[in-house]
From TrEMBL:
It comes from Myxozyma melibiosi. SUPFAM superfamilies: Trimeric LpxA-like enzymes. Pfam families: Hexapep. PANTHER family: ACETYLTRANSFERASE. Gene3D superfamilies: Hexapeptide repeat proteins. InterPro entries: Hexapep (IPR001451), Trans_hexapeptide_repeat (IPR050179), Trimer_LpxA-like_sf (IPR011004). It comes from the Eukaryota. This is Dynactin subunit 6.
């Protein structure tokens, strides 16, 4: 369960009370930050990443908190998994995360393990490994897996079931797909006149998030 001290959310955001957090994650080691009018659906899970995931170990640091950041007017659908590194370990992988806000003691820092942008939709059962950054106006399809350290630019589409290998950089306005559960391949650069351009995408996500928020309010479901 998501403890209150793990959450920092805008008043207009909806965060389901049924979010799952691994028992080994202490409240003071995680911060879920959610922007205005964003929706975090039930059964989203925040989990400890597999220690065997490919990553280059960095210098030992003490972490104040692992940050999972979701922008405004974005949706994280049911059963998505957001992975963070094991905060019990003093040897964290600095390459997999970017320092956001150091404290007075430089050994205690706030580290972004996932950054999901504005007006972005992450569909059901997607798995996002540590260090992933997803830009604005994106769609990540159902059942996708984004490997450690993946960077997805703005206005991108990732087709359902696609696996993007660790460390991959997806340029803005790119469509990515894979067949048969294989590794993702860049299909095309999207034309600026397509529906993923900023204006239409913003209107679409506002419509979706506002509909979901109204539905939640009508059933008395609200948490943040």
């Amino acid at each position: 369960m998501l403890a209150p001290e793990m959450l920092e959310a805008a008043d207009s955001a909806f965060i389901s009370e049924h979010i799952l957090v691994d028992d080994s994650i202490a409240p003071h080691h995680l911060l879920l930050k959610v922007g205005s009018h964003s929706v975090i659906n039930p059964h989203v899970r925040i989990a400890i990443a597999d220690a065997s995931s490919d990553a280059e170990a960095g210098p030992a640091i003490e972490l104040k908190r692992m940050l999972v950041s979701v922008g405004e007017y974005s949706i994280i659908a049911d059963k998505c998994v957001l992975e963070i590194d094991d905060i019990r370990s003093q040897s964290q992988r600095r390459r997999s995360s970017s320092v956001v806000s150091p404290t007075k003691d430089e050994k205690e820092v706030l580290v972004a393990t996932q950054v999901i942008g504005n007006y972005t939709y992450v569909d059901a059962a997607a798995r996002i490994e540590p260090g992933v950054e997803i830009g604005d106006y994106c769609v990540v399809g159902a059942g996708c897996k984004l490997g450690r350290g993946v960077r997805v630019g703005n206005n991108c589409r990732v087709a359902a079931g696609t696996i993007i290998e660790p460390g991959t950089v997806v340029a803005s306005k790119t469509a990515v797909s894979s067949s048969g559960g294989g590794t993702g391949r860049m299909l095309q650069t999207l034309d600026v006149d397509e529906d993923m351009d900023d204006g239409p995408r913003k209107r679409e996500m506002k419509m979706h998030t506002e509909f979901l928020l109204k539905a939640m309010h009508s059933h008395g479901k609200r948490r943040h």
